[in-house]
Amino acid sequence: MICAKLGYTVDFATSRAEVIQLAGAIWTYFGIFVNVYREIPNPVEGLLRMRHILIWGFLLSLVPGHVVAQELRLENLQNKTILVFTPHPDDDVFGAGGTIALLNRKHNKVYIVVYTNDDKGSYDPEMTSQRLARIRRAEQEGSEGMLGTSKENILWMGYDDGMLEYAPQPKLTEEATAIIRRIRPDVLLSVDPGEWYERWHKSDHRMAAFNTIDAVRAAEFWLYFPNQKLQQGLEPYRVPEMYFFYPSPQEANYFVNIDDVAELKFEAAAKQVSQFEPAVTKYRPDWDAKSLEKAKDDMRHEQPRKDGHYVEAFRHAGLEQEKQMSDLAILGGPKAKRKPFPPWPHYDDKEQQALKDVLESRVWWRTPGTKTLEFEQAFVAFHGARHGIAVTNGTAALEVTMAGLGIGVGDEVILPDFTFVATASAVLFANALPVLVDVDPKTYCIDCDLVEAAITPRTKAILAVHMGGLPADLDRLTEIANRRGLALVEDCAHAHASEWRGKRIGTFGVAGTFSFQASKLMTAGEGGIIISNDDKFERQARSVHDCGRMPGEWFYSHFIYGSNYRLSEWQGAILHVQLSRLDEQTHRRHQNSRLLDKLLSEIPGITPQKTDARCTRNGQYAYIFHVDTKQFAGISVERFVAAMNAEGIPNQASYPPVHELHMFRNGEYRKRLSGKQATEDHPFLQKKFPATQRAAGQTVWLPQPALLGAEEDMHEIVAALSKIQKHAKELA
Fold first, then answer.
1. How far is residue 306's CA from residue 7's CA, in Å, rounded to a whole number?
2. How far apart are alpha carbons 93 and 70 in whole angstroms?
3. Does the domain formed by 349-576 have CATH 3.40.640.10?
4. pLDDT tens digits along 147-170
5. From-to residues of CATH 3.40.50.10320 in the chain
6. Alpha-carbon separation of residue 555 from 2, 379, 540, 543 (angstroms)
7. pLDDT score of 321
8. How far apart are CA 342 and CA 519, in angstroms?
9. Do residues 472 and 450 touch, judged by C-beta distance below 8 A?
10. Are 204 and 163 in contact (CB under 8 A)?
11. Over the stretch 295-330, which tens digit does the pLDDT of each residue have?
């Protein structure tokens, strides 16, 4: 406006930083104005000279930023989430309908929140409030539908009295706050609460305008109004950008060219039949041709124009008016990733149908059922095995395997110190001793040289863990096991569909155990399976899992000690469907992980888990990387993890070394041992385990659901890491 009055035209499409730059420039030139003016005796000459100083100073202040060329315009946004608050069903269409149509065409997800159905806007004495509310709802759905907004994306606040100023303000703000937190928009549009027009317009417009502003503010904080819907589990959210429609000419600072959609807007607005004469005086559900054309001509005439083009005027405000104290989300800045990763677990109507089939069959347990058996057969076929025993969970799979191998009192099983507790506790459950060895410092899988050194006459098995989905060195381990006469068991809880030299894991030794707990690569909430090609082992393990029964024998014959580890038909049905997606999901996780390998190589201090060329496919339960905290201002891994989570990147620190668990430190584990083994020293507990200590204390895990995202998601992960590294001193 200033430039226009001075005889120049400037398009005000500026960001917050540019506004600050501009304000600073104006302040500077104002100072020059004052100082120079004092030195000029002739006031008229001074004013003329100052006019030139201000004009050139103002224009020069715009040159370095190239503000118009660099701004991403509202109407050019793509694949964003837009939230529009409107007082009545027609205000969004009249005030921003063209912009809404453009945003929908650019594949943005547009939501419309309507405060009231406005059941007072009729002079028809035969019209009832309830009837008009229903009419206006249908008209709104028709209007927005023409603009590209689906009916499901129109949210109704539920106040049908047309008098929002009499509704309890905390209640309204509570509802609007919850919507903002749930939708988490990139951009919010609302009717303008400005100083000129809307502030002195209808009370329901004024109420809607100010209520939305209150809700935007409240959405940022855990507590704002006493009745805020914290119980919904919705986290605070800061709206990045705001545009107000229906601004006064004095306050409009942003214009969207709607030439391409102007006629569409007029057609959509005409769907609001009840708000045009003659239907206001005497309602009718549709137009006559003459009245319709007149209404659209009136809209064409009244639609604002700028430089010969149809435009919609906005006041661009946003919440960037307050100085942001930090770019880090954990310190109040914006998230690097505002859109969540794909939800986990994934399901669709196939799981629903599978559960329905079980329900209607009335056969819900495995013995007479077919679903768990069908899953077992499909899973072993997928992994190239002959036998499969589905059990209640992954820990149970390990326990049954130990029993199936005959491992018990006085025996030893070698396993890595870097693993989840179940790997060790399953051995203790069999009354045997878990002998812990360190891991390879780069792959985090069991160190084969240390396995060889730990073998004693008591050793009965090697229990290898495929950490994060990366197989342990199966070439070395099978060679050692075969040469020393030991059973090799693969803990495959992280490694569904992983491959070693083109062969799927789980059958390189006597048995492979898998988990279907909620975080795993396929899930039924809980569950597990043992696969094997060893007939003798399978017969023994199957009996253990089924109360000591033997196949083909009388149901109440129990030949060995066993328990009930059977999987239900419900879980078997779900897992069979989950298995159908495993191949495609594994491919996506593997590809995204390799992309992360490439992208993270450019960030100092981040070292991904080393890959092995013999691993031809990684199931990728997690993307594990080492963090050199020196490259992040010395912050702790816990602080790093918290900062990443705040940026919208789910991640976690590792579990601790097994030897540091309380049950080993306080000797509680000895209660599971017998005889000499229960009282003698166990030298492995005196070792340092340097690689495990480093892995447990300095690695960060990205969980597998994040690896199911798009390529763009992987770039956002890296952007978050870079952002934290850039501002790490603020976290120190």
1. 17
2. 29
3. yes
4. 999 999 999 886 554 455 456 777
5. 73-320
6. 93, 26, 16, 12
7. 42
8. 13
9. no
10. yes
11. 999 999 999 988 889 999 998 875 544 444 578 988
Task: Please state at what angle helix 129-147 crosses helix 262-269, rounded to 10 degrees.
Answer: 160
- pLDDT at res. 61: 36
Query: Which of the residues in the chain have pLDDT under 70?
Result: 1-72, 118-121, 158-167, 194-204, 222-232, 250, 318-325
Predicted pLDDT at 559: 82
Class in CATH terms, 580-730: alpha beta
Phi-psi sector, 464: left (phi>0), alpha (psi -120 to 50), beta: beta
Type of residue numbered 422: A
DSSP string, 177-225: HHHHHHH--SEEEEE---TTTGGGS-HHHHHHHHHHHHHHHHTTSS-SS
Ranges in the chain annotated CATH 3.40.640.10:
349-576
Q: List, by residue number, the catalytic residues.
A: 420, 491, 494, 517, 520, 549, 556, 566
Question: Which residue, 522, 561, 527, is CA-closest to 541?
Answer: 561
* Confidence (pLDDT) at 493: 98
Check if the beta carbon of residue 621 is closer than 8 Å to that of residue 707.
no
Alpha carbons 650 and 702: distance in angstroms, whole number: 6
